[in-house]
Amino acid sequence: MATLTPLKAALAMPTLKGYRSFVVIAWQASSGLALAVAAATVLAAVTPLVSITAVSIVVSEIPGVIRHGLNSPAAHTALIGAAIVGILFVVQSASTSLQGVAATVLADRIDHELQRRLMSAVMSPAGIAHLEDPATLDLITVGRDTFRAWLRPGRLAISLSQLVSARVTLVGAALIIVRYRWPLALLFLATALWAENEERRASRRAAEHHHGRSPLARRTEYYYELGVTPGAAKEIRIFGLPQFLLDRFADTWRLAMSQAMGKAGLRPMLSALSLGASTLLIFGWMCLDALHGHLKLAPDMLVYAQALMVALGAVGTTASLRLDSEMALSTLRRYQLGYDSARAGSASQVETGGDRPGLAVVATGLPRREIRFDQVRFSYPGGRDQVLNGLDLVIPAGQSLAIVGANGAGKSTLVKLLCRMYEPQSGRILVDGTELAALDLASWRHQIAAVYQDYVRYEMPARTNIGFGAVAHQDDLAGIAAAAADAGVADVIASLGSGYDTILSAGYEDGGELSGGEWQKVALARALFALKHGARMLILDEPAANLDARAEAELYERFLALTKGVTTIVISHRFSTVRQASLIAVISDGQISELGSHAELMARDTQYAHMFRLQAARFDQVGA
C-alpha cells in the first residue's frame, strides 16, 4: 500500500482535527479574546432565529390592532413584539460587529504566536544540522511563504466563527421547520449539509493546489519566478526566452487548474440541484397547505418561510467562507508539520554539554595551550562520504593558523565543528585537554568572533550591524566607532545621512546602501567589536573570496596585525594569501596532509609547494 509523504499526510489531516488544534492555539494566544469571539458567535447565530418568532408575533397581532385600536391587548402584544425585534436587531448588529473586531484581533495574535513559536523552534537547536535537511527546509518555509494575508492561519478565527454562526443558524432554522413537517425539514437539512460538504471538498482541492501540492502548480510558480526575478534576466534576454516562458506559464497554469478542479465531477452540481429542489418542495408544500386552509398565512407560513430563507442564507455564507477557511487550515497543517519537524530536528541532534552521557558541563575560558582535533570523523546529514576522516590537528593558542585545501576538502566543516554547529560522529575536540562537548556552550561561543563568506547584511542601523558582535554591549558607541575605524569603514558610515543610526538598506526612507566591499568591512568590524568585548578566537572563513588575490592578501595581513596574540583561524583556497600565518594546515581527503610554516612547507617541496607555485604561475600570467 502506498504511503503518503509527510506533507501530503499533513494536508490529508481531517478538517475537524485541524479545527480542534486551532481552537487550542487560539485559547493559548488569548483566552479572553477567544471567549469574546465565542460569545459573539453564539449571539450572532441565535438572534436571527429569535427574531423570526418576534416578527411573526408582531405580524399576527396587526389584524387585531386594526380592529380594536392601539389600546387593545393585541396592540400591547404587538408593541412588545416590536420592541423585542428592535432589541434583537441591536444585539445582532452589536454581536456581529464584536465578532468581526474580536476575531480580527485574535487572528493577529494567533499569527504572531505561531510565527514566534516557529522562530523559537528553528533557532533553539544549538547546531544547524536541521537547517541543512531538505525536508525540514521545505517545511519551515511556511513561516515565510504562507503567512501571506489570505493564507494566514489566524484567518480561521474570522472564518471559523462565521462558519459556526452559520451552522447554528442552519440547524436552528431546520428545527423551526420541523414543527411544520419534520420529513421536509430533515430532507432540507440533509441536502444543505451535502451541498456544504461538496463546497468544502472543492475548497480543499483549491487550497492544496495553491499550496503547491501539485507538481504542475510548482512548475507554474517556477516559470513566474524565472521571468520576474533578476537572477536569470540577462540570459532570458540574450537567448530570446520571454515568449517561451510566457507560453509555458500559461499552458502549465491551465493544465494545473484543470487538474485541480476537474476532479469534482457531477457531485457539486447534483448537491446544489438537490438543495434547490428541497427548498422549492417545502415552499410549494406550504403554499398548498395555505390554499387548503391547513396553514395560516400569518404567523405560521411567515415563520416557516423566514426560517427557510434564513437557512438558505446560512448555506450561502458557509459556501463563501469555505475557501478562506480551507486555505488557512491548510496553512495551519503545514505549519504544524514544520514546527514538529523543527523540534524533532532539535531532539535528533547529538545532545550538547551536560546532556552528553558522562560529561559534566564546565565553564570555559580562553584556551591557554591548544585546541586539539583527535581522530575526528564527520559526514553531513544524508551524506554518504566522510568529509573529515580521522582528522588530527593541533591549533596553538595565541597564534594564527591558515587552513587551505581544494573546494569541498572540509575546511569550513572543521570550523563548524569548532563552533559546535555540528558534533563529530566520532573522535574528540579538546580545549586544553577538556572535551569541547563538556564546555558551557554559551561561554565557549562568547570566546569566538567569526566572519564567514556568507556574512549577513542586516537591514538595521550601522551601529546595530557592528554592535551585534557583542549584543550585550551595543551601547558602547566608542567601541563601535573604533571597530569601524580598524576595519576601514568609519568614513563610509560617517558619510551616510544619519551616520551610525542609518539603516543599511535602500528600501527604507533615509536608508543607505553599501557596496559589496563596504558590507564586507562592516562584517569585519562586527568581529573586531566582538574581540573588544571578550572574544579571544577569530575565525575568517573566506570572507574575501570575492576579492582578487592581492586585495585578499592585504586584508588578511591587516587583520593578522590587528589581532596579534589572538588565536586566529584563516580559511582560504588561495595559498598565496595565507603565507603570513604562523602555521599552515593543508586538508586533503578529510585529513591534515601537511602542517608547518610557509617556509617549512615550501622547503619540503610537496603538495603545498606544488599548489603554491601553480597558483602563483597563474597569477603571474594574468599580471603579464
What does this structure look like?
By secondary structure, this protein is an alpha/beta fold. Among the domains are: about 15-180 and about 295-350, no CATH class; about 365-445 and about 570-624, Rossmann fold, CATH 3.40.50.300. Helices cover about 60% and strands about 10% of the residues. The chain is built from 22 helices and ten strands. The chain has helices spanning about 5-10, 15-30, 30-70, 75-125, 135-140, 140-145, 155-180, 180-210, 215-230, 235-240, 240-260, 265-290, 295-350, 410-420, 440-445, 460-465, 475-485, 490-495, 515-530, 550-560, 600-605, 605-624, and strands at about 370-380, 390-395, 400-405, 425-430, 435, 450, 535-540, 565-570, 585-590, 590-595. The strands form two sheets. A six-stranded mixed β-sheet has the order 6-7-8-3-9-10, sandwiched between helices. The chain has a four-stranded antiparallel β-sheet with strand order 2-1-4-5, with helices on one face. α2 (about 15-30) crosses α3 (about 30-70). The protein is elongated. The two termini are about 65 Å apart. Mean pLDDT is about 80; it is low at about 1-15 and about 350-355.
Structure described in brief:
Helix content is 61%, strand content 9%.
Main features:
624 residues; alpha/beta; Rossmann fold; six-stranded mixed beta sheet; 22 helices; 10 strands; 9% strand; disordered N terminus
Write the SSE topology:
Elements: H1 6-11, H2 15-29, H3 31-68, H4 73-123, H5 134-140, H6 142-145, H7 155-178, H8 182-210, H9 215-228, H10 233-238, H11 242-261, H12 267-291, H13 297-348, E1 370-378, E2 388-396, E3 400-405, H14 411-418, E4 426-431, E5 434-435, H15 441-446, E6 448-452, H16 462-467, H17 477-487, H18 490-494, H19 516-532, E7 537-541, H20 549-562, E8 567-571, E9 583-588, E10 591-596, H21 598-604, H22 607-623
